[in-house]
Write a structure and sequence with these properties.
Elements lengths: L1 H16 L1 E8 L17 E7 L5 H18 L4 E4 L7 H4 L12 E3 L11 E6 L5 E7 L14 H16 L4 E6 L4 E6 L2 E7 L1 H10 L3 E5 L5 E4 L2 E6 L11 E2 L5 E3 L7 E6 L3 E7 L13
Parallel strand pairs: 2-3, 3-4, 6-7, 7-10, 10-12
Antiparallel strand pairs: 1-16, 2-15, 5-6, 8-9, 11-12, 11-14, 13-14, 15-16
Helix pairs in contact: 1-2
Length: about 290
């Protein structure tokens, strides 16, 4: 009876919020896009969201969606992708009665290292597993930005290398504000043009599973073993279709306006859903 009540509550939330499947990453087989809603008791859920300024109505709706999802899925923490740090409007406008108020918020721009502006947060998972959450100040890695101290970039990459070498975790997620993938239009479709090769090489070398950032020219790109995921902000809709090239680089172009991602971390896979106010995609109902 308890199980029946649980899935009905979850389904009701999905019907009202309209979830769209994003991607499933599986450790036991090559990366692929799969629909999977087989939640297990030991799964951990968290939310990632694009911070920044929104109109009051849009911000209120977004926070309400996040509250409902946090309650329905027992979300453990929130990753906030923002250049504003703790002063981000989403954090500032969470009310005292909201379930989001009691959750840890890990925000880009908030650092344990004043010198470098980055942090490592190790999150314990069931069965002795660990999730590494690493934040990088990616503005310093953009090629079109002239830094007063060119050595800063080297220090940052050295810090990331030492951090990844010193930790052994089941899952690794790197979070930064800026996308690391650029695109170009070919035959009316957006395809990958290039990516930040030094970081991509480091990600594949040390087993980074996901790079999370604000949304650029893509929703997600799957290259080698790394998923580059753009978190939605307020973007214009377009009609580009998914495309895939021969080197297994997948691109799904942006088609949402205001939403966030729900992540599920389990023993062998990480699933991501996009929570928005339209484009409904409903899972099958579990057996009672």
């Amino acid at each position: 009876m308890k199980r029946s009540t649980s899935w009905r509550c979850t389904l009701a939330t999905q019907l009202s919020l309209c979830f769209a499947l994003y991607v499933v990453l599986n450790l036991s087989q090559p990366q692929k896009f799969v629909y999977n809603d087989n939640s297990r008791p030991l799964d951990l859920y968290f939310i990632s969201v694009r911070g920044g300024f929104r109109a009051l109505k849009e911000q209120t709706h977004l926070l309400k969606l996040m509250e409902n999802v946090a309650k329905a899925y027992d979300v453990k923490f929130v990753v906030n992708i923002s250049e504003l740090g703790k002063g981000d409007p989403l954090i500032q406008n969470v009310t005292g009665l909201s379930p989001l108020m009691n959750l840890p918020w890990y925000t880009t721009g908030v650092s344990e290292s004043e010198e470098l502006g980055c942090f490592l947060q190790q999150i314990k998972l069931p069965q002795g597993r660990t999730l590494d959450l690493i934040s990088l100040p990616t503005a310093s890695l953009q090629v079109d930005i002239c830094l007063p101290n060119p050595a800063f970039k080297d220090k940052l990459l050295n810090w990331l290398t030492r951090t990844l070498e010193a930790t052994v975790s089941s899952w690794r997620i790197v979070v930064g504000l800026h996308p690391l993938v650029s695109c170009e239009a070919i035959e009316e479709q957006m395809v990958v043009k290039e990516m930040h090769q030094p970081l991509h090489h480091m990600f594949t070398r040390f087993g980074v599973n996901v790079y999370l950032s604000q949304q650029g020219c893509y929703n997600y790109v799957l290259q080698d073993s790394v998923a580059y995921i753009g978190n939605p902000g307020l973007t214009e809709e377009n009609s580009h279709l998914p495309s895939a090239s021969a080197n297994e680089t997948y691109l799904v172009t942006k088609d949402m306006t205001n939403g966030f991602l729900l992540h599920r971390v389990s023993l062998l896979e990480m699933a991501l859903w996009l929570a928005i106010e339209s484009s409904c995609f409903f899972p099958s109902v579990p057996d009672t």
